[in-house]
Specification:
single chain; alpha+beta; FAD/NAD(P)-binding domain; D-Amino Acid Oxidase, Chain A, domain 2; 2 domains; 8-stranded mixed sheet; 6-stranded mixed sheet; binds 8-demethyl-8-dimethylamino-flavin-adenine-dinucleotide; binds P-hydroxybenzoic acid
Length: 388
């Protein structure tokens, strides 16, 4: 088998890269170790920045997004007794969209299987070879158990945090930074109409809570919990009681409903540099992880592959290396901005039990709710800074 770009991993980064390359006449093959059903069922991010929506729309993937997605003009920041609305268009001229990563992935897979480049599910034993040469290759076992070799010009490592690509880059030298936070999120999906028109980020002495949604009839809610908590110890009643307490506001009530999914997610920041070794390029969670408080993970993956697609088109069709040479530094500038913003939102909203920390957090929240400059800084970062 031969292709121009071998793409490892069919998450949003790999699938969108394949699509962007195809639109520019560059061919690729996507290799995914899980099944289509598994990939389409994973519940993850829910907020798309304006640039993500624009990128998907320009790539011909905006039809269902614009029909079923919900444009949000802001968020609420809450601390006991106060719920304050940040108006994004007024503060920075941009909005965000609520449209689940699951739906983005389904749209991308459908487009790929409908006449797009090859996408192979359930491959195993993926190994990357000769990445320092101009003709690397990928060895793998296909879904029928047959050993295959995929020769290519470039490999894109879009195989997420636990993939095989990042270790290959790091083996040639590099650096990683990591911060593990002393809290986790307990997330639920519920058949309940959201009791809010926009997301609520709530500070509470018992811990952070986030009110999000997937549709007019499905809510997505999160509670800060200790990372050692076991999901079996959280009955639905206990979860709803905690949510009701942390979001409490006079004259307002949460909407409860059947819980259809619940899990506990660890939170960490992680950055791996460089994002390139020879003809192997990393993008998305393969190179970096952010805690979800800033809603940045999926959007960063889209920003990476937007830059990478431009760079690879220039390399493979114009034989110019300037953009691939600049890729890692350009991508990392945005990665660090989003890493900072995600850390900032996480640090401002999660309680540690320390009263001094709590007073600083409340002071910061009051500042954002009373200063247009402080609110604008949050709005610009939340809605996404320009890619480039
Ligand atoms: P993905 O989505 O992890 O996709 C990587 C793909 O590579 C496959 N893979 C391999 N394929 C072939 N060979 C191998 N050896 C392979 N190893 C792995 C995997 O099966 C997978 O299909 O990475 P990508 O494309 O970079 O996309 C990044 C986003 O998925 C991620 O940043 C966000 O979902 C992060 N994230 C969240 N972000 C938010 O902004 N808000 C959220 O609420 C939110 N919740 C989450 C999340 C990430 C989670 N993970 C990774 C555990 C909740 C969870 C549970
Ligand atoms: C979500 O809807 O899953 C979501 C929204 C905003 C965040 C994190 C997760 O900051």
């Amino acid at each position: 088998m031969r292709t121009q770009v071998a793409i490892i991993g069919a998450g949003p980064a790999g699938l969108l890269l394949s699509r962007l390359l195809a639109l520019q006449g560059v061919d690729s093959v996507v290799l995914e170790n899980r099944s289509r059903e598994y990939v389409e069922a994973r519940i993850r991010a829910g907020i798309l920045e304006q640039h993500t929506v624009d990128t998907l729309t320009d790539a011909g993937l905006g039809e269902r997004l614009h029909r079923e997605g919900m444009e949000h003009r802001g968020i609420y920041l809450q601390h006991p007794g106060t719920r304050y609305q940040l108006d994004f268009p007024e503060l920075c001229g941009r909005t965000v969209w609520v449209y689940g990563q699951t739906e983005v992935t389904k749209d991308l897979i459908r487009a790929q299987l409908d006449g797009g480049p090859p996408l192979l599910f359930e491959v195993s034993d993926v190994t990357l070879e000769e990445v320092d040469s101009d003709s690397p290759c990928v060895r793998f076992t296909d879904a029928d158990g047959v050993a295959q070799v995929l020769d290519c010009d470039v490999i894109a490592g879009t195989d997420g945090f636990h993939g095989v690509s990042r270790p290959v880059v790091q083996a040639a030298g590099g650096h990683t930074w990591e911060r593990t936070y002393p809290y986790a999120w307990l997330g639920i999906l519920a058949d309940a109409a959201p009791a809010t028109d926009e997301l609520i980020y709530a500070w509470h002495p018992e811990g952070f809570a986030l009110y999000s949604m997937r549709s007019p009839s499905v809510s997505r809610l999160y509670l800060q919990v200790d990372p050692t908590e076991k999901i079996e110890d959280w009955s639905d009643d206990r979860i709803w009681e905690n949510l009701a307490r942390r979001f409490a506001l006079d004259g307002w009530d949460i909407n409860t409903g059947t819980v259809t999914e619940k899990s506990i997610l660890p939170m960490r920041s992680f950055v791996s540099t460089p994002m390139r070794r020879g003809r192997l390029f990393l993008a998305g969670d393969a190179a970096h992880i952010v805690p979800p408080t800033g809603a940045k993970g999926l959007n960063l993956a889209v920003a990476d592959v937007t830059l990478l697609a431009q760079a690879l088109v220039r390399l493979l069709t114009e034989k110019q290396t300037d953009l691939v040479d600049a890729y890692s530094d350009r991508a990392l500038a945005r990665v660090w901005r989003c890493t900072h913003f995600s850390w900032f939102m996480t640090s401002m909203l999660h309680t540690s039990g320390d009263d001094f920390d709590a007073q600083l957090q409340l002071s910061q929240l009051r500042r954002i709710c009373s200063s247009e400059a402080a609110a604008r800084e949050l709005a610009e970062n939340y809605t996404g800074l320009p890619v480039g």
